[in-house]
Write a structure and sequence with these properties.
The complex is a heterotrimer of chains A (about 280), B (about 325) and C (about 270).
Chain A lengths: L17 H29 L1 E3 L9 E2 L2 H4 L4 H34 L4 H14 L2 H14 L6 H26 L2 H9 L4 H12 L1 H17 L2 H7 L6 H10 L3 H24 L3 H5 L5
Antiparallel strand pairs in A: 1-2
Helix pairs in contact in A: 1-12, 3-4, 3-6, 3-9, 4-6, 5-10, 6-9, 6-10, 7-8, 9-12, 11-12
Chain B lengths: L2 E10 L2 E11 L4 E5 L6 H9 L6 E6 L2 E2 L10 E4 L11 H11 L4 H14 L18 H13 L5 E5 L7 H18 L2 E6 L2 H7 L2 E6 L2 E6 L1 H6 L4 H6 L3 E8 L5 E12 L4 E3 L9 E13 L4 E7 L2 E7 L6 E8 L4 E4 L2
Parallel strand pairs in B: 3-8, 3-9, 6-7, 7-8
Antiparallel strand pairs in B: 1-2, 1-4, 4-5, 9-10, 11-12, 12-18, 13-17, 14-15, 14-17, 15-16
Chain C lengths: L5 H10 L1 H22 L1 E2 L2 E2 L2 H41 L3 H8 L6 H11 L5 H8 L15 H25 L3 H9 L4 H12 L1 H16 L3 H6 L8 H10 L4 H28 L1
Classes of the chains: A mainly alpha (about 280), B alpha+beta (about 325), C mainly alpha (about 270).
C-alpha cells in the first residue's frame, strides 16, 4: 500500500474509498436483513411459548415445541419422509443412470431429444398434472400408499437425476472408454469397470439432490399421499392450517436442515451447475 | 504531454512484476516498451492506464500526479490486445460510447466519429459505421479499436500489443500505419510489444525491460548498436552468444570467463587461409547447414562446441571457414 | 452405443424402460387425461368446463398474471443490478447470503413469509424494536398480491442471481475495462455492456422464473386464506379437492399450460431472431 497520499479511489474494482466501502457494507446489511429476517422469524416462533405484540422477543421461551420432534406425529412424518426419500433416491438413480449414459453417448439427435423428454415435467405446471395423476392412482389403488408417493416423487426426481448424470457422463471423455473398448472390453463391461467408478462423485451429488427434492416435495404428496401417507411438508401445512404456528415453524426449520448442510458442504465440494437445479425445489 | 514514472513497484504475491521502475516517455514521441513475457511491460502499461494501482511509486502525466486517478480521468486512451470492441454495438456506437458519456452534442459526435474513421483510413469502407465487429476482418477491427481510442482526443495513447492477433504480413503494414497516425496527430504514444523488430522499426525511443526493471532505454539505433548488458545485446536482432573471450590479436577463444555477443548480419565468412584484417575478431569453424530465408541465406557454423548463425545475401559454401567480425560489432561482457 | 453388439444394445434399451415408464405413467398419461377431462363433462365432449372457468375464474387469471409479473419485476429489478454490482465489486458474503433461499423449500418460504408479513408479524416486530413504527401499526400486505410477489421474488432471486452471475462472469473483463477506461461507472457498465452481452441468458432466466411463478402453489397455499382473488393453482386445488370437479379443474390446468407456453413462445421467438 502506498504510504503517502489520501485513500485511493476505486481502481480495478477494489474499493478503497470510504463511500465505496460504505456502499458494500450497506448492501451486506440489507441482504442480511432481507434474507435472514424471515428465517429469524421462524426461529423465534419455534421457541415462543407465549408471544404477544409488541414485544420483540417472546415473553416466554421454551423448547416444548421442539420436544415434539421426538414424539408422535411429527416424528412419524419425519421418518416416513426419510424412508420415502431414501427409496426414491435409490430408484431414481438406478432408473436414471442407463438413460443418462445413453443420452450422453448417443448420436444426435437422440441425446437432446431424450433430455427434452425428461425436462418436460419441470416445464409444465405441477399441480394440474399431479392432480390428474392422483385421479389415475386412485383408480389403480395407488392413492394413499407409499408406492404411489414414491412414484410421484420419482416423476420430479428423475428430472434432476437424469440431467445431472448426463452432465456427469458427458464430462467423462469418450476416449477413456474407447481405450478400453479398443483393448477388447464390451460396452457394458467398460461402463461398469470404468465409466461408473469415475462417475461416482456425480452419483453422490445426484443422490443428494434427489433426496432433498423428495424430502421437500409437497404438492404431489399432498394430492397422492394425504391423509394416510404424510411427509414433513404436508405435516407443516396441516399444522399451519390449524394455526399451530409454533409447530409449523419447528417443522419448517427441521425441513431446512438438509438444505443448509448441503449449502455449507457445497461451498467446498459441489460444483455450481448442480446448484441451478435447486431453484426448482 | 510528457509521461513519467518514478520508482514504480508492483508485487503479486511472491512475484515482483515491477521493481522500482523509473522512466520518462517523451511528449509527442512513440515509445516502445519491449521485453520477453513476464518482464513487466504489460503491468507498466496497465499502471499507466489506471487499471492497476502500484504498491509504491508515482506516475505523472504532464504535471499531474495521476498515480491513483481513475482511468477515465487520465486523458489516456488504451488500445487493447484483444481490441475489446463491444460485439452488440455497431462500429459507430463503439466509437460514440465515450463521447456520449462526455455529453458531446449529437452532431459533434457524428463529425468526430467520421474524423476518427478517416484517420485510420476506414472511412472508405462503405457502411462501416453500421457494421458490427464480427462482420469485420482482423485488420479492420484493429483499426476500429484505434479509432475508438483516438476519437476522445487523448493526450496519451496506450497500445497493448496491438498487432499480436494479426497475420504476419498485415502486421508489417499496420505498424507503419500506426506510426504514420502517431506522427500525424503528434500524440504521445506508449506501445508495448514482445516483438523487438516491431519495436525498433517504428519507435522513436525503445525501452527494454527484463524482470520488472528497465534494462536499457534510448533511440533504437543507439540501443541496438551499443547494448549495455548481455540481455539487451541478445534480445535485439539475430544474435549469437559465445562463452568466450578475445585475445589481443582478435582471436576468439572459448572461456567461461566472458560472453561475446555479435549479430548474424555482422559476420563475414572467409577462407581459413586468409588472415583476419586488423580491427576484427575472428574464429575458425565449419559450416554445418545453410538455410534459405528468402531475402538471403543463413549459415550455421559450428565453432568449438557451439553453433553460430551468419547471414548473407548469397549462399555460403560448406566446409571450413573463418568467421570474421568487426571489433566494434562485438559486445564483450564478463561473466561473474 | 455404436460399439455395442445388438444383444447389448437391446439390454441398454431395456434398462431405459423403467425411467421412461415413470415419466409416461406419472406425467404423460396424467397430462393427456387432464387435457381430455377439460373437454369432458358427464361423459360428453363439451366446452362447459371452460365456460365455467371463464365465468368464475377469469379475474383470477388476471390476478395470477399480475402477481407473477410483479414478482418478476421485483426479482429482476433487484437481481440485475445486484448481480452486476457483485460482478464488478466482489463480495463473498453477499453471494453466500444470496444462495440461502435456494435451499429453503417453497412450502417453508410460504410459511416463513406468512408469519413475517402478517399484520403483526415478525417484520413489524423488528421494525418496532428499531423504533421505526409505532405500536398501533399493522401490516396489511401479507395476504394480498404484494405479499405474494415479495415471497415469490424472495425465493426466485437466489436462482436468478446464480444464473445472472454465471452469465455476467462470462462477459470478458476486457469489455468492461474498455468501458471503464472511457468513463463508464458501475451503472453504465451493467446496462450498456453486461446486460446486452448476456441477453440470451437473461431471457432464459425470465422464462424460467415466469413459468414457475405462474404455476406457484405451495407459497400461495401457505399465505392466503381463500377470500378475494386467488392464484389459479389455488382455484384448481379447491375445484378438485372440495368440489370433486376434475373436469373444470383440468380446464384451469390447461389455461395455466397456455400461460406458461405463452412465456416460452416469446423466448423462443427472441432466440430465433438471433
Amino acid at each position: 500500500m502506498n504510504a503517502t497520499g489520501p485513500p485511493a479511489p476505486s481502481l480495478r474494482g477494489r474499493p478503497r474509498g470510504l463511500p465505496a466501502l460504505a456502499l458494500r457494507a450497506a448492501l451486506v446489511a440489507v441482504l442480511l436483513a432481507a434474507i435472514v429476517g424471515p428465517l429469524a422469524g421462524l426461529v423465534l416462533w419455534s421457541v415462543a411459548e407465549r408471544w404477544h405484540w409488541p414485544a420483540v422477543l417472546p415473553q416466554q421461551v421454551g423448547l416444548k415445541y421442539w420436544a415434539r420432534i421426538t414424539q408422535g406425529d411429527l416424528l412419524a412424518a419425519l421418518t416416513r419422509g426419510v424412508a420415502i426419500a431414501s427409496v426414491t433416491t435409490v430408484a431414481a438413480l438406478v432408473a436414471a443412470i442407463p438413460v443418462s449414459y445413453g443420452a450422453a453417448r448417443a448420436r444426435l439427435p437422440l441425446g437432446p431429444v431424450l433430455l427434452m423428454l425428461f425436462l418436460l415435467p419441470q416445464a409444465f405446471p405441477q399441480l394440474p398434472v399431479f392432480a390428474s395423476a392422483a385421479v389415475l392412482f386412485y383408480r389403480w389403488n395407488l392413492a394413499g400408499t407409499y408406492a404411489g408417493v414414491v412414484l410421484i416423487h420419482l416423476v420430479g426426481g428423475l428430472v434432476y437425476a437424469v440431467w445431472t448424470m448426463t452432465a456427469v457422463f458427458r464430462a467423462i471423455g469418450e476416449d477413456i472408454e474407447e481405450a478400453a473398448i479398443n483393448l477388447g472390453a464390451s460396452v457394458t463391461r467398460t461402463f461398469f469397470r470404468i465409466s461408473l467408478p469415475l462417475a461416482l462423485p456425480g452419483v453422490v451429488a445426484s443422490s443428494i439432490l434427489v433426496f432433498i427434492y423428495s424430502l421437500d416435495e409437497f404438492t404431489g404428496t399432498l394430492l397422492v399421499g394425504a391423509p394416510y401417507v404424510t411427509t414433513l411438508p404436508v405435516y407443516m401445512y396441516t399444522a399451519s392450517l390449524g394455526y399451530e404456528l409454533q409447530i409449523a415453524s419447528v417443522t419448517a426449520l427441521v425441513l431446512m436442515v438438509p438444505g443448509v448442510l448441503l449449502l455449507v458442504l457445497m461451498e467446498r465440494f459441489l460444483r455450481a451447475e448442480y446448484l441451478a437445479f435447486f431453484g426448482r425445489l | 504531454m510528457d509521461v513519467r514514472v518514478e520508482d514504480l513497484t508492483k508485487r503479486y504475491g511472491q512475484v515482483t512484476a515491477l521493481d522500482g521502475v523509473s522512466q520518462a516517455f517523451p511528449s509527442g514521441a512513440l515509445t516502445a516498451v519491449v521485453g520477453p513475457s513476464g518482464c513487466g511491460k504489460t503491468t507498466l502499461l496497465r499502471c499507466l492506464a489506471g487499471f492497476v494501482a502500484p504498491d509504491r511509486g508515482r506516475l505523472w502525466m504532464g504535471d499531474r500526479d495521476v498515480t491513483y486517478t481513475q482511468p477515465q480521468s487520465r486523458d489516456a486512451a488504451m488500445v487493447f490486445q484483444s481490441y475489446a470492441l463491444w460485439p452488440h454495438m455497431t462500429v459507430f456506437e463503439n466509437l460514440a460510447f465515450a463521447l456520449r458519456l462526455r455529453k458531446v452534442p449529437r452532431r459533434d459526435i457524428e463529425q468526430r466519429v467520421r474524423e476518427a474513421l478517416d484517420l485510420v483510413e476506414l472511412d472508405r469502407v462503405p457502411g462501416i459505421g453500421e457494421r458490427r465487429p464480427r462482420q469485420l476482418s482482423g485488420g479492420q477491427q484493429q483499426r476500429v479499436a484505434l479509432a475508438r481510442a483516438i476519437v476522445v482526443r487523448p493526450q496519451v495513447l496506450l497500445l497493448d500489443e496491438p498487432l499480436s492477433n494479426l497475420d504476419a504480413k498485415i502486421r508489417h503494414r499496420v505498424r507503419v500505419e500506426i506510426r504514420a497516425l502517431q506522427r500525424r496527430t503528434g500524440i504521445t504514444a506508449i506501445y508495448v510489444t514482445h516483438d523487438q523488430e516491431e519495436a525498433m522499426s517504428i519507435a522513436d525511443m525503445v525501452v527494454v525491460m527484463e524482470g520488472g526493471r528497465v534494462a536499457q532505454a534510448g533511440r533504437p539505433e543507439e540501443v541496438y548498436a551499443q547494448p549495455k548488458s548481455p540481455f539487451v545485446a541478445e534480445f535485439l536482432g539475430s544474435t549469437n552468444v559465445l562463452a568466450a573471450v578475445m585475445d589481443p590479436d582478435g582471436r576468439i577463444l572459448p572461456s567461461a570467463a566472458g560472453s561475446l555477443i555479435f549479430r548474424a548480419e555482422d559476420i563475414r565468412l572467409a577462407s581459413p587461409q586468409e588472415p583476419a584484417p586488423a580491427g576484427s575478431a575472428w574464429v575458425d569453424g565449419e559450416v554445418v547447414d545453410v538455410l534459405f530465408l528468402g531475402a538471403g541465406y543463413r549459415a550455421y557454423v559450428r565453432v568449438g562446441e557451439e553453433v553460430i548463425m551468419a547471414d548473407h545475401r548469397t549462399p555460403m559454401p560448406r566446409g571450413a571457414v573463418r568467421a570474421v567480425i568487426p571489433l566494434e560489432k562485438v559486445f564483450a561482457f564478463s561473466r561473474d | 452405443m455404436n460399439a455395442a453388439r445388438p444383444a447389448e444394445q437391446l439390454l441398454w434399451w431395456l434398462a431405459a424402460i423403467p425411467a421412461t415408464m415413470v415419466i409416461i405413467v406419472g406425467f404423460g398419461f396424467p397430462l393427456v387425461q387432464s387435457l381430455v377431462a377439460s373437454f369432458t363433462r358427464d361423459g360428453v365432449l363439451t366446452l362447459a368446463n371452460y365456460e365455467l372457468v371463464y365465468r368464475l375464474y377469469r379475474q383470477d387469471v388476471v390476478y395470477t398474471v399480475m402477481v407473477a409479473a410483479a414478482g418478476l419485476v421485483l426479482t429482476f429489478g433487484i437481481g440485475i443490478p445486484l448481480s452486476g454490482y457483485l460482478r464488478l465489486h466482489h463480495s463473498q458474503t453477499a453471494e453466500f447470503l444470496l444462495k440461502v433461499p435456494l435451499f429453503v423449500p417453497f412450502v417453508v418460504v410460504g410459511h416463513a413469509m406468512r408469519i413475517f408479513l402478517a399484520p403483526r408479524g415478525t417484520l413489524l416486530v423488528f421494525l418496532h424494536a428499531l423504533g421505526l413504527v409505532s405500536q398501533d401499526t399493522t401490516l396489511a400486505i401479507s395476504e394480498g398480491w404484494i405479499g405474494l410477489s415479495i415471497a415469490l421474488a424472495w425465493k426466485h432471486l437466489a436462482l436468478v442471481v446464480l444464473l445472472l452471475m454465471g452469465a455476467f462472469r462470462g462477459v470478458g473483463e476486457e469489455y468492461l475495462e474498455a468501458a471503464r477506461g472511457f468513463g463508464a461507472g458501475t451503472f453504465r457498465q451493467i446496462w450498456a455492456v453486461m446486460v446486452p452481452m448476456a441477453a440470451p441468458s437473461i431471457g432464459l432466466a425470465v422464462v424460467l422464473s415466469l413459468t414457475s411463478m405462474l404455476a406457484s402453489f405451495s407459497i400461495p397455499l401457505m399465505m392466503t386464506k381463500g377470500s378475494g382473488p386467488q392464484m389459479l393453482m389455488i382455484d384448481l386445488y379447491h375445484r378438485y379437492g372440495q368440489h370433486g370437479d376434475f373436469g373444470t379443474a383440468s380446464a384451469i390446468g390447461v389455461v395455466s399450460y397456455l400461460l406458461a407456453a405463452g412465456a416460452a413462445y416469446y423466448y423462443l421467438k427472441g432466440v430465433a431472431r438471433q
